[in-house]
Each structure stands twice: as structure tokens, then as C-alpha cells.
Amino acid sequence: MTDDTATRPAPRSHDALSPFELGLARFLENRLAVASAVVVVLFVAAAIFAPWVAPHDPDEADLFRRLQPPAWLGGEWAHPLGCDGLGRDIVSRLVYGSRVSILVGVLVVAIATAVGILAGLAAGYLGGLVDRLVSGLVDVLLGFPYLIFAIGLMAMMGPGFQNIILALVYKEWVVPCRIVRGETLVARELEYVEAARSLGASGRHIMLREILPNIVSPVVVVATVRIAQVIILEASLSFLGLGVQPPTASWGSMVADGREFLIDAWWVSTFPGLAILVLVLAINIVSQGLRDAFDPRIQA
Amino acid sequence: MSLSRLLERLLGLIPVLLGVSVIVFLMISLTPGDPVEIMLGDSRATPEQIAALRHDMGLDRSAMERFLVFLWNAVHGDFGLSFFHRRPVIDVLAERLPATIELTLVSLVLALVIAIPLGVVAAVRKNSWIDRIATVGSLLGVSLPGFWFGILLILFFGVHLGWLPISGRIGYSSEVHSVTGFLLVDTLIAGRPASFLDAAAHILMPALTLALPMAAILMRVTRSSMLEVLRADYVLFAEAKGLTRARVIGRHALKNALIPTVTVAALETGSLLGGNMIVETVFGWPGIGRLVVEAIFNRNFPLVQASVLLYAVTYVLLNFVADLLYVLLNPRVRL
Hints:
B: 335 residues, mainly alpha, 75% helix
């Protein structure tokens, strides 16, 4: 800093900001990421306020409206995106379907991240038998392609909302666990941990209060991108008929329902797939923006 | 890499494979529903007959005993009878395997053919419009739900334009005698180019659906490793020597830039295995993926068990191959 800056009123430069504020400022400069964040917020809002947002009851069948086309193709504006094979309003089913996708995405990643953090911290910090057990389990779970594993579990447990969460968490926790274990192995040897140890801090205190806050940012960044992947996995399971059961609307099963009518009514399958694409794409862009803004190591 | 290192790595696979088989065994043993009842269906068997069948299937033994028997049989390729087909599971799998392998290989080639040129051009012309399109395209590629993209392809190229067949491996009139099980090869062996083209037309859409997410990832990998290589001293030196840009990129940079691409491609081939259940279901492709999905709905557990195990073992081996490739291609890395 040169002398003449001291005489002027200091502009709020990036130097004066905390790492979090600095990251946030960088993120807000990324217009595409901000726009995508708005899209994600809109989807979440639609999911939360579904009863108010959806124009109709998503499960109400009306055979007179069977396969009614979207409004601009000769349908009616009361059902803007048309109706499905049972005459149910597609917009309303999309809105309610977002609940399943978003809830599964968020819950699976949240639970998996909590489990993965605890397992990773324990394995990395305690080492020895704990590390061997955790790492062994991680290696075995990594031996399964994700979808196969989830499908195997769903076949065993039967379809349903809770079972989807369980089937995905069983493998998903491996992702944060590996990151946390690796970071913990490095952090364990650093001075601040050494200092806490010499002050007599307990292992639990060191793991949760000292190490965790310092390694949490890559975990959070990865968690956002994992939500997008889990949403696609849930949709894939639902598409195969292993997800939530009818009549509950989910985007994957809506795409599957529309396969019967591809020739006469392309809209039944197309719109739910488009919803998945837009939401997942938006989450991926936000996640990339977060990574660029908050993880200086990757940026460098 | 020394032979002893290689052996050590190979031995390291054993506990993983053992763990995988424990999980597969547990998956099926903990499934609610009595396999005997499922097998007998609605037939009116007497309790004595049920008990006899239970004994034959080894269901009256302890879990540990059953696991050991399962493992012993699995190592010998015996996965029991497929309830639905009334034939040995291994025969049913063997029949469907070539279709899945053919689809996977064609997808792999497609993904590489799309990803490598795009990645190289994106790196060489960094920040150009091609680079931007490639970057957006790769984000789209990883965000696309495969089952939906497949349906869009069917709608457009199959239904709307009528250019490509929407289901199956080959048209009825193009069928040829099976030699290898790979139709693209068998049709050539039979000397029937029209049948070959028909088989190629059938495989194009499913392979593209499977290849696109992989191409997106490989494109990014190629782009970033190419960028790194282009900054390296030996490339600068080659340019300083006065070699043309094309020669520098083609002869010097590309060879090294592709090391990560090849490694990631081997890893991602494993994830093609996961995607093929979806793609085979969408395109009516008679491979293992569709077989598993059908088996789940038929509650045909021996078949589910064997296929999940087959997938997992292949996946573990592919990961091992990816590790090996990385070491073999990259002399700086030692295990």
C-alpha cells in the first residue's frame, strides 16, 4: 500500500474483508452463477409453497383432459403445459414433483455429509484400527457402481421415500468421508493442532472444534455438486419404477409415464426432463461459482 | 513398476472383492419375502415339499454357511437357477453379456472421439467461442438425465425424422448367425454390409446417450491437461526450434496431455456400467442392464445377485486397470 492511499478515505477494498465476505464478493461478481442461484431459489420456493403455487391438485385425474396438449398448441391456459395420460395437470405435477427431487437431494447429501465428516475425522485423526475399518468399508463401497448399488438396495428394501434416502446415503457418505479423511491427515500434523494438543485438549475437541472448521469449505463445495448428482440418481430410480410410488408425482416417474405416449403426446415426458435438466444445471453452475469464489487453492 | 508391486496391488484387490461379495450376499439375504414361496408361485406344494425345496436350496443352514457356499459357487461360476428363465443364471448372463460389452465399447469410442478433439481445440483456442461452447456443453453433458436425453433422441431421430430405429439391436431381416455375439463384428464376418449398417444404426442412439456425460468429463480433463502441457518448457522449446504449431501440438503436446484422459476414461468406463441399466431400458437393448431391471421386478433374486456381483467385480478391475494405466503411461509416477 502506498502513502497517498492513507490520506484518502480508504475504499472498502478486498483486503479489508473476511475470507467469507471475500468469497461472497467474488461469487456475486459471477453473473451466471448469481442467475443460476436465483433459479435454484425459485425451484426451492415452488417446492415449499407447492399448495399455493400449483394451479390444480396434482393427483386429480380428468379423463376428458387426457393427453391435452400445451396451451399454445391448442390446449387451454388453465393447463399451460397440458395434461398427462390420466388427464392430470402437468404444471401441478411438476411443482409437487420438485418436492421429491429437492428433498431427496438435500436430505441425502446432508445426512451423508454429517456421517462422512464424523467417519472421516475419526479415521484421519485416530488412525489405527478405526482408520483401517473406515477405509476398508470405503474401498468396498467404491467397488460398486453407484446406480447398481442403489438399485440393489431398492430391490431389497422395496420402493418408497424413506428407502430412497437410505439407499443413496449408504453410498453417498463415502464422498465427504474421503475428503475429510485426507484433509484431517494433513491437518493432524499442523501447528494449530499440535498447539491444541499440548494445551491438553481432548481428541473430540480437537476433531470437532479445531480441525473441522478449517477443512469444512471443500466439503461444502462438494456437497452442492453432490446434490445435483443425487437429484439425477433419484430421478433415475423413479424412472425405473423404484422410487416414490404412484400417485405421488416425481420427475423421473413422470418421464417414464410419458414414454407410452411419445408419438401422440411428446409433452408428457419432455417437460419433467427439462425441469430436471434446468435445476441440475443451475445447481452445477452455482457449485462451480462457489468453488471458484471460496476455494483459492483450486482457483490458483 | 516392479512385478512384486504389481502382485501386491493385485493381492490388495482380494479384501475388496471379498467385502463386495459380503454386501451382495447380505443385500439378497436380508430381502423380505421367502425365495421358496416366490419360486413356487401359486402352486399348491405340501409343507413337506416346501421343506424339501428349502433343504435343497440350502436355506435351512446358517447365514455363515450359506455365505461360504455362495462364495464357493460364485468362484466356480455357479449362481444357481434363474427363477424366471428356469435356466442357470450364468447361462442367461452369458447370453446377454455381448450386447452390453458392445454398447459399452462403442460408447467409449464415441466419447473419446467427441471429447479429445473438442478438448484440444478448447485449450489451444482458450477463451474463444469454441472454448466457451465446449465449456457450456460439458456442463450440459453432466447435467443431462440420461433417460430423458435418450427419449429426446428417440422423439427426434426416431419418431419425428424417422432416420434411426428406436429399439433393439438389429432389424429382423438383417439378423446374422452369431459368432462373437458382437453384431457389428458378426455382420462383417457374414459379409453383409447392409446388416452391419443396420446394426450400427441401432447402436448409435443408445451409445450416444451413454457417451455424452462421459464425453463431457473427458473433454474437461483433456482441456485442462492440454493447457498445462502447452505451458511446459519442452513445448516452448519445440516452438522456439521453429516447428509448426500443428506439429508441436500433434507430436509433442498431445502425447503427454492425453495421459490423464486415458486414465479417467478407464475409470469412467466403470460408470458407463451404471448408466447402461437406464439406457438399455430406454432403448430396449437386450443386455445385462435391462436384464437386472426385469429381474428386480420379477423378484428373480439369484439373477439380481449375480449381476450386481458381476458389475462390482468388473468395476473393481476397471479401477485397477485405470491405476495401472496411469503408472504405465506416466514414468514419473511410481506406485
